[in-house]
Design goal:
This protein has a single domain, classed as 3-Layer(aba) Sandwich (Rossmann fold), CATH 3.40.50. It is built from ten helices and ten strands. It is globular and about 50 Å long. It starts with 5 loop residues before the first strand and ends with a helix. The structure holds adenosine-5'-triphosphate.
């Protein structure tokens, strides 16, 4: 299969921990600009798959390519982040004692330390980017509030905004709606769909209502490999998926 139109290309990837195969001959391909939802039971290998993509875990075997031609197994975590892969972990980690706007300024792409970042005169382009991210993350009205005062859901959006400030080509998002209200969950689906217009996104999530809202292709992992892949209707009608995951 040609890699040229892919943002993420994993083929035959395996990794073992103390003899246990957490990822087992995994093949997963994402087209440029695609958003994909990854589902699967606990221990299926979803987190380990993202660890491999971000360079945190080295695969024992297999190919891992980014943007068609970059062999990720040859790069470390910092290089991979710089090349345009952003990752959002489940728990939000924002700078609580800074304003929403300053959180975003501190995350803007490019080398900067805190003092110059907060006190230098912002360029027109930087101001435009911050305004755009505030609009995308529904935080415009709160730009001067302290991050500490945001709701759990808003902190998740702010952290997604901080990733956007790094201008990644691919965003990996781990269980974004865990702990959110229904209204926040629906808003998060809208927000990610908007983001996916301009970059590729991988979302790991257990909330099937949310996955339905996303309306994208779904991959169900099980025991480190792809168990089923297709539309949510297709995957949720797959008896193997019902047996190991949805029917629990
Ligand atoms: N560093 C490690 N050392 C040993 N075992 C590990 C390590 N990382 C993951 N595992 C094991 O690999 C398997 C896959 O774990 P992983 O966290 O990738 O699953 P997951 O699909 O993300 O599950 P969850 O939905 O619970 O987050 C699990 O059995 C886990 O215990």
């Amino acid at each position: 299969m040609s890699k040229s139109n892919t943002i993420l290309y994993l083929d035959g990837v395996s990794v073992s921990f103390d003899g246990f195969r957490a990822i087992n001959n995994l093949s997963l391909v994402l087209d440029k600009g695609e958003m994909r939802a990854i589902i699967g039971p606990n221990g299926a290998g979803k987190t380990t798959m993202m660890d491999i993509v971000t360079g945190k875990t080295r695969p024992d075997s297999g190919e891992v390519f980014f943007d068609g031609e970059i062999d990720l197994t040859r790069h470390d975590e910092a290089e991979i982040a710089m090349m345009g892969i952003g990752r959002k972990f489940q728990k939000p980690t924002v700078f609580e004692s800074h304003s929403i706007e300053d959180n975003l300024v501190l995350s803007l792409k490019g080398p900067r330390s805190i003092f110059p970042a907060l006190f230098h005169r912002r360029s027109f382009e930087e101001t435009r980017r911050i305004d755009e991210i505030l609009a995308t993350t529904r935080l415009e009205a709160k730009r001067h509030d302290l991050a500490a005062n945001l709701s759990h859901g808003q902190k998740q959006w702010l952290e997604i905004g901080m990733l956007l400030a790094q201008d990644p080509k691919l965003l990996l998002v781990d269980e974004p709606v865990a702990g959110m209200t229904d209204a926040e969950t629906e808003e998060t689906a809208r927000l990610l769909k908007e983001i996916a217009k301009t970059r590729s996104v991988v979302v790991v999530e257990h909330d099937m209502h949310f996955v339905r809202e996303l309306g994208v292709k779904v991959t169900c992992l099980h025991e480190g490999s792809v168990l089923s892949e297709g539309s949510l209707d297709f995957v949720s009608a797959d008896e193997r998926v019902v047996e190991v995951y949805l029917g629990r």
